[in-house]
Amino acid sequence: GQVEPQVGLIGLLAHQFREEIAAGMIGLEPMLVQQRDFRARMEGLLKASAHWNASRRKYLPQYLRFRMTEIGTQPGTSSSSQHSGVHRILETLFRVAQEQGEVRTDLAPTELAWLFEFMCMGAVMIWLRLLDDSLEQRFLLALEVLIDGEGNITIGRIGPIRCAAVAADDDQALAMLVGRKDEPFYNLLERLDAAI
């Protein structure tokens, strides 16, 4: 009955957003190629992304809920980011940056792209809860952590644990949490931030 139309509408919204993101990515590629280095390319991408998200703020909670249902699916199968081209562009940017010695090389470009996508998704979730916050600044902070930070955050399935959040630096694990049943993603992020 009533659940199916809701799922259909959210799926339609996700499809529309994928199409918009794909078109935007194609439009951004020439600008990204012209930038002097990885940081400048990523800043251009993140500023455009912040603008896109801000203009659709009202619909983002539903879209993000849909994206969360994709966690645990095999990367590269049905992900919104795959269909929109985001992951492909991020992976390319990371690969070129690794070749130029601008980012860490101990992780594959595709893994860096996935990590960064989820960092940005977390930034959007926090931004949605803080009415006067700047999404662009949250995105740029995520970029700074990625480039200059010595640690990493992993969120997702770890072995038999369906949803775990782990923060670590080069020497040790700083916090390890298990997602609570029906816990919103942003609550898990807040708990991880408090634990660190």
Low-confidence stretches are 1-5, 75-80
Q: What is the gyration radius calculated from CA atoms?
A: 17 Å
The biggest sheet, with number of strands, parallel, antiparallel or mixed sense and barrel status, is:
3 strands, antiparallel
Strand content: 5-15%
Q: How are the strands of the largest sheet arranged?
A: 1-2-3
Count up the helices.
Answer: 8
Question: What distance lies between the first and last C-alpha atoms, to the nearest angstrom?
Answer: 44 Å
- The quaternary organization reads as single chain
User: N-to-C SSE series?
Assistant: HHHHHHHEEEH
Question: What's the overall average pLDDT, rounded?
Answer: 81
Helical coverage, percent range:
55-70%
Net shape = globular
Structural class: mainly alpha
Number of strands: 3
SSE layout:
Blueprint: H1 3-34, H2 38-55, H3 60-68, H4 80-84, H5 86-99, H6 109-129, H7 135-148, E1 152-158, E2 161-168, E3 173-178, H8 185-195
Describe this structure in words.
Helices cover about 65% and strands about 10% of the residues. With about 200 residues, it is mainly alpha-helical. β1 (about 150-160) and β2 form a beta hairpin. α1 runs antiparallel to α2 (about 40-55) and α2 (about 40-55) runs antiparallel to α7. The longest helix has about 30 residues, at about 5-35. The N and C termini lie far apart (about 45 Å). The model is unreliable at about 1-5 and about 75-80 (pLDDT under 50).
